[in-house]
Amino acid sequence: MPDYKYQGTNRAGSSVSGVMTATSKEDLKNILKRQQIAPTKMSEKGKEFNIPVFGGGVSAKELAIFTRQFSVMIDAGLPLVQCLEILASQQENKSFQKVLTATRSQVEGGATLSASMRSAPKVFDGLYVNMVEAGETGGILDTILQRLSGYIEKNVKLQRAVKSAMVYPIGVLSIAGGVIVLLLWKVVPIFATLFAGLGVTLPLPTRIVIMLSNMVGSYFGLLGLIVIGMGIFGLKLYYETPQGRFVMDTIILRLPVIGILMRKIAVARFTRTLGTLISSGVPILEGLDITARTAGNAVVERALFSVRKSLEEGKSLTEPLKECDVFPGMVTQMIAVGEQTGAMDAMLSKIADFYEEEVDAAVKDLLTALEPIMIVFLGIVVGGVVISMYLPLFTLIGKLSDTH
Q1: Model pLDDT for residues 351-367, shown as the tens digit of each residue
Q2: Whose CA is closest to 317, among 290, 334, 339?
Q3: How many degrees, rounded to 5, is the angle at CA 311 between CA 308 and CA 316?
Q4: Are 192 and 323 in the same domain?
Q5: Residue 149 sits in the same domain as residue 217
């Protein structure tokens, strides 16, 4: 019989690994199941294969609905395995259904719910798993799941706010760019041919537009598109590096209007995440670590890791928050009050509520201000191209009037 290497989690949620002799992969799974080990990886003589973990295509909305339904079932007293079986059978998303089925199998095999969910990190992130683990330990899993669903729903709302703020200007700029390229490519050459036949002296704006039209219609236009594409690709690669992400996020936070909005979103996300974790019984050091990794901004992430290090050294939470110069004074003052009164989770939740309302108001104000700006921009750019084409005609008409 062949020897198999395996990795997995035991009933306590700890990682285990070893070598075991079995007739087949299925036989090994059954042996580990009897030993209350949920396998995550197995290999035979260098041939490795993973337990399928399907994490693609599961939206935050689907996760929030699942969590809400799960909490209701747990509160009603249904067993874990039955809850997961029912929810998996009702799940329309096939990827999510496979994740839930795999989770149910591991729980049925003796693994804890948090350890089983840890096998699908693309669906259940560190925050989710740690909160579930805290709920299992404290015997308040239904309450924790309710908090989780509320957190995910609020996070979805924040993401929607960001998209609302960005979709309109990006859409308008894309339309403007398409219209300008179409004018330069198809319309301007007709006017250029007409002016060349008339022998009219062209004003400077018209010459500039014709020059741009010639560039668009030649290999220079293609070269320009390639350069722009390479620039965007290079910027994306740079952003994926730790230093590049930090530099880009720093620039974003310092932008006049968008920067203020992004800072408010970062504060809302930080306070909501940490408040939810602390109220669920997760230790503050572990909560800060999870919050930093899910911050969505490298500047905030670095600041929170600095805060965590300071706490490990025995300092207070508010001092490093003030030093990092990321969070507004009001936030640090309210956190200081929460720290002194022992009501940190409640204070963080109040800050999150306040800043989520601030984000909503900021997005509405931004969209209200952007609408006339975008209309004026479109008018100037497109109108400028059209007027520059008619300027020689006005000059020609003036000359013909003078001759008569």
Answers
A1: 988 988 888 888 888 77
A2: 339
A3: 125
A4: yes
A5: no
